Amino acid sequence: MRFTVTDLLAKKREKQKITMLTAYDYPFAQIVDEAGIDMILVGDSLSMVIQGNETTLPVTVDEIIYHTKIVVRATKRAMVVADMPFMSYQISVEDAVRNAGRLVKEAGAQAVKLEGGREIIRQIKAITEAEIPVIGHLGLTPQAVLRMGGYKLQGKIPEQAQRIKEDAILLQEAGVVAIVLEVIPSGLAKDITESLEIPTIGIGAGVNCDGQVLVVHDLLGLFEKFTPKFVKKYLNLRDEILKAIKQYKEEVEKGEFPDKEHSF
Ligand code: KIV
Prior knowledge:
There is one protein chain. This protein is α/β, with parallel strands linked by helices. The chain has 2 domains: about 5-235, TIM Barrel (Alpha-Beta Barrel); about 235-264, no CATH class. The protein has helices spanning about 5-15, 25-35, 45-50, 60-75, 95-105, 120-130, 145-150, 160-175, 185-195, 215-220, 235-255; strands spanning about 20, 40, 80-85, 110-115, 135-140, 180, 200-205, 210-215. An 8-stranded parallel beta barrel has the order 1-2-3-4-5-6-7-8, surrounded by 7 helices. The longest helix is centred in the C-terminal third of the chain and has 18 residues, at about 235-255. It is globular, with a radius of gyration of 20 Å. It starts with a helix and ends in a 10-residue tail after the last helix.
């Protein structure tokens, strides 16, 4: 039985932490699911960690659908959340509902995630009215990187903090089932978390959120371009992979592989 929206809200009520990680392909999704992570996000971060783009802006709805299908196929227990990419919901309410519908109907996602606050309330209400669970995303919203001028801490000055807090309340009223809070001060995240009935899922937002999310490639040490302060590398997988591939190359070149054990 998959983790559902009901389980998500129950975890908040019962003060149990919610776990979320990204995954974009079959082997990683299978491992994340087997580890018992509650929610898997097919994030638009795939634009950077899988496709090698500088930002999350280029990824398309069709590409998110392709990866979400694979992640759904690979998993049994986790709730699979598909990110709505840049320009798939900003232009119109109709676009937003149509694209959210594709992520559920064609890809098999159990929820969708949208970045933004008061400016996308109509879209959130319409997607929710179409019976699709929505997860909000406030604070550092990477799709706004051009306006923000980089990936910077948000909500530092009181007016900014107040706006994020107000947006969180508006998102809850519009029907979102959880809110991702990215790169905001821990005190602000705590304040928002305590003022909401729905869970908050933090990334660079301190320990007081109801749950945590990370990009799996960051956690495993597979993304070498930059490491934000909030990322804990649990492994240096890139180094391990590089070592193994170099050893293979050397053994082939020396005629040591395949040896008797690996030959017929
Ligand atoms: O795209 C993504 O991976 C995300 C997480 C960083 C929350 O939105």
